[in-house]
Automatic annotation (TrEMBL):
<protein>
    <submittedName>
        <fullName>Rho termination factor N-terminal domain-containing protein</fullName>
    </submittedName>
</protein>
<dbReference type="Pfam" id="PF07498">
    <property type="entry name" value="Rho_N"/>
</dbReference>
<dbReference type="InterPro" id="IPR011112">
    <property type="entry name" value="Rho-like_N"/>
</dbReference>
<feature type="domain" description="Rho termination factor-like N-terminal">
    <location>
        <begin position="1"/>
        <end position="30"/>
    </location>
</feature>
Length: 59
């Protein structure tokens, strides 16, 4: 997903993107949604969140 699309999602969730890097912004969105802020934390194989919006880009 492109950064502009992520920034739009952040805006809709009330997260101020500022100059955050992609991974930091996604984790902020996850936290704002009440989800574990786990994007690119190395747990993609164990997270169990198959329907996660960020799954395709996660490592």
């Amino acid at each position: 997903m492109k950064l502009d699309e992520i920034r739009e999602i952040a805006r809709k969730r009330g997260v101020k993107a500022g100059k955050m890097k992609k991974a930091d912004l996604i984790r902020a969105i996850q936290a704002a949604e009440g989800n574990p802020a786990c994007f690119e934390s190395g747990t993609v194989d164990q997270c169990g969140q198959g329907a996660c919006l960020w799954r395709e880009d996660c490592r």
